[in-house]
């Protein structure tokens, strides 16, 4: 366990293993704990850095407005703090947005990109978009985090054998700081870098669950906008793919990273 300070905010991260740096960024309302099924596997091959985004996990939760750009500045500060060479960057959901922002702003720092169940923008365009966000926004404010965590657990892990995952989700979600959770939720809406995707020239792997919140077709659209990207769909999975399909997820990611490493050595 380690901490570093950025703009008066103490941010928590963990390091494992040796080799090329590999950074994992969690999603909204989550923390570095949610990579528990990846850490032992990935740390055998890479210098693994797992972060708690500002407002999440063991990082400070300052009372202020959050933004994806601000989360990205925190990540940049960590990269500088650790004096990292170009790193492989993996982001899940909101973490994918931070990863996209980093790759657009500082392409030289990103060796490869892996985006999991995420998108390069969250723009409210249609009446239906507005209704969906208004509903989620209102529920996030009205319900307790324990209630949200239980509902999410039931939705993400609906199978009888996933009881342990449901319990963990409910427990972890309840520990969130409500104000920080809502500030992070607000940071997502209206954000986007879709117009700048051509700047991301590093190898990119987009992973989508077949039952993610947003359809696979939406990922197919933005994958075409990335200069060097491919899409892998993981079957029988929902939004938390690293937790509900860890073996397939880990194998898919390692296979991609190995290809990137081999290709860069050849040049």
UniProtKB/TrEMBL annotation:
Keywords of the record: Hydrolase
An annotated Gene Ontology molecular function: 3-oxoadipate enol-lactonase activity
Record bears the keyword Hydrolase: yes
Record's GO cellular component terms: membrane
SUPFAM superfamilies: alpha/beta-Hydrolases (SSF53474)
One Pfam family per UniProt: Abhydrolase_1
Domain of life: Bacteria
Keyword Oxidoreductase on entry: no
Chain ranges of the AB hydrolase-1 domain: 21-244
Entry's EC annotation: 3.1.1.24
PANTHER family: AB HYDROLASE SUPERFAMILY PROTEIN YCLE, MONOACYLGLYCEROL LIPASE
Descriptive protein name: 3-oxoadipate enol-lactonase 2
Gene assigned in the entry: catD_2
């Amino acid at each position: 366990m380690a901490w570093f300070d950025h703009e008066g905010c103490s941010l928590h991260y963990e390091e494992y293993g040796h080799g090329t740096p590999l950074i994992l960024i969690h999603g909204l309302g989550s923390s570095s704990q949610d990579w528990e099924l990846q850490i032992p596997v990935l740390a055998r091959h890479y210098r693994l850095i797992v972060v708690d985004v500002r407002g999440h996990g063991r990082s400070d939760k300052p009372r202020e407005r959050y933004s994806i750009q601000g989360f990205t500045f925190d990540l940049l500060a960590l990269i500088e703090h650790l004096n990292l060479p170009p790193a492989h960057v993996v982001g899940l959901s909101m973490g994918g947005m931070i990863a996209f922002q980093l790759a657009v702003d500082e392409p030289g720092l990103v060796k490869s990109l892996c985006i999991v169940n995420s998108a390069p923008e969250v723009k409210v365009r249609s009446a239906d978009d507005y209704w969906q966000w208004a509903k989620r926004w209102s529920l996030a404010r009205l319900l307790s985090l324990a209630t949200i965590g239980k509902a999410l657990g039931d939705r993400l892990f609906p199978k009888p054998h996933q009881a342990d995952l449901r319990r963990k989700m409910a427990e972890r979600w309840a520990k969130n700081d409500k104000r920080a959770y809502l500030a992070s939720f607000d940071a997502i809406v209206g954000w986007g870098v879709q117009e700048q995707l051509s700047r991301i020239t590093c190898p990119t792997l987009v992973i989508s669950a077949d039952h993610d919140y947003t359809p696979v077709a939406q990922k197919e659209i933005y994958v075409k906008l990335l200069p060097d990207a491919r899409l892998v769909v993981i079957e029988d999975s929902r939004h938390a793919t690293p937790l509900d399909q860890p073996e397939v997820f880990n194998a898919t990611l390692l296979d991609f990273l190995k290809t990137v490493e081999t290709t860069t050595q050849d040049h």
